[in-house]
Amino acid sequence: MKTAEFVGRYLAARGVKHAFGHPGSDVMDLIEGFEQAGIEFVLTRHENTAAYMANVNGQLRGVPGVAIATKGPGVTNITSGVAAALLDRAPLLCFTSHIDEETAASYVHQHLPVVEFYRTITKMAAEMTAANAAELVPRAYQTALASLPGSVYLPSSAREQTRDMPGEDVALQAIIDTAPPAEQLATPDLTAAAALVRDAERLLVVVGPGFNHANVNAKLLEPVDALSAPVCVTPEAVGQVPADHALYAGMYGWYDDPLRKLMGEADIILTLGSEGWDNMGSYNGPGRVVSLAATGANDPTFQPVAHAVNGDPAALLRGMAEAGRHQGARAWGAAHAAEVLGEIDHNLSVSTEHNEADGIPPQAVLTLLRQAAPRNAIFSCDVGAHKSLSCQAWRSYEPKTLALTNGLSPMGFGLASAMGAKIACPDRTVGSVTGDGGLLMYGGELATWARLKLPLVLVVMIDASLTQVKRRQERRGYSVASTSFQQVDFCGLAGVLGIDSIRARTTAELQVALDKAIAANRPVLIEAILDTEEYRRIPGTP
């Protein structure tokens, strides 16, 4: 069995359905091995897009996403996507070609020390050969999924992809057919940690994304309900607690001043699956912290930690639900949660200074899209001023229904993540919001979207600037020439590519456009012309 054939069969047996990438001639055998195993290759216009699509696709399907690039510039182009998966804790397998040492002795074109290069942005980087693939590929697969999940890099030369692996095909097929063992984590003693939680009158629960990746979503609400205390989420954990849950108090990250005030008054802060990288701010206050996580429970962004407990997520959640119950009602409960969330919602409402003639309030884009989309819709957002707003304003009711990158946080993620989500969940409504700056970083992917004919709604927030940076320049009296650019006719661009498009200049026009776009079940781009002054009017604007 050849290396490329083995890799394709192994991943297909684990449930991988798609691989995303931009090929070169030296990965064509690997791609063919995937195709022969039933894994569809999805061509993108840029390598990073492939990694962003794989990031979200893999998370939604519960398997590592797969991205493929060629040697040389392919290796360097895809780095942001690979690094983003590492910091997003998204399981990802990245395959590229490279020049092996034997060839490099006489042929150095596009030669890089790729393994050394990638070790800093992955959980694991190792050259794949015919001799080691039978051991390396299963180990790489498990590494990508194990706590903390992340990216793994496996370069191989074109020669190694087509070499016969040592051993009989029967033995190799046995490796393919053998599912990797589930990760075994400890079940620690929660007695001391639970006692602090049990006795706290002013308890606040903070849910991070760590337990989302551990696939214990159904068990997460057990301690939330049992502890009867206000609960908030970090950006990439939005949806872990339904936004209409009686104890939900909002998102800790942006536009969260009422929540931070509550945090500063807490006796005990209980963090569940918080890993630090996803938090936009640090807590170091009077309340003590109890932290439960699969690994890395002593989260430096929540201090002082009285008890840091690492272990099996399901066991930790179950144990805290049983041992952390308070006798009677706590001082804080659903009423406090509702008060905080109500204040956040009030701060995010459209200001009295807004004039419809100036464009659409950015808050209204999120509100109207939420109203138009089904409850279980998947929403993705790009990076920019709209991301910080989206994380707080978008109401998610199920885990993994908000797709964003908040670790490395690269622009250009929005359309790619939406396409990856739609491929993973073809029967779900998918909507995405992107800035005009972020979309043009990977404008070629509009052609990918058109070619794939993916029925999703992309709202482009038109402000002709890099608003988040521009606001800070203005505060300091700096020139804004570096963050201002011309307004682009995205509707015209979409039309050339065969994508339906609608331009909305008012809130009323946007509401009609969204209803029409979702009902169309086709690729639809909506230009939303913004009143950018609304960003400045929101209390707590970052």
Commentary on this structure:
The chain is of the alpha/beta class and 542 residues long. It is 41% helix and 17% strand. The chain has 25 helices and 18 strands. Helix 3 packs parallel to helix 5. The longest helix is centred in the N-terminal third of the chain and has 15 residues. The radius of gyration is 24 Å and the shape is globular. It starts with a helix and ends in a 5-residue tail after the last helix.
Please write out the topology:
Layout (H helix, E strand, L loop, with lengths): L2 H11 L4 E5 L5 H9 L3 E4 L3 H15 L3 E5 L3 H5 L1 H9 L4 E6 L3 H4 L9 H5 L5 E2 L7 H13 L5 E6 L1 H4 L7 H9 L13 H9 L3 E5 L2 H4 L3 H11 L3 E3 L14 E4 L5 H9 L2 E5 L10 E11 L8 E9 L2 H11 L10 H14 L14 H11 L5 E4 L3 H9 L8 E2 L9 H12 L5 E6 H6 L3 H8 L4 E6 L4 H9 L14 H8 L2 E5 L2 H14 L3 E6 L3 H5 L5
Parallel strand pairs: 1-2, 1-3, 3-4, 4-6, 5-6, 7-8, 7-10, 8-9, 10-11, 11-12, 13-14, 13-15, 15-16, 16-18, 17-18
